[in-house]
Amino acid sequence: MTATFDHLRDAVLHLPAGDQMRLVSLVVMQATAAHPGIDFQDGVCGGAALLE
How many angstroms separate the CA atoms of 29 and 43, rounded? Predict the structure, then answer.
């Protein structure tokens, strides 16, 4: 069975607040792992910070 966005949204809205927060935390961690933000690049100004 494939869940649609509407089914997932309804299921999440019926979760207790603590479970909703854990789910949001998981999604945010996955999203930020794809875009780390600040990285350091060797050989450029002695490893100056680089925004990605």
Answer: 29
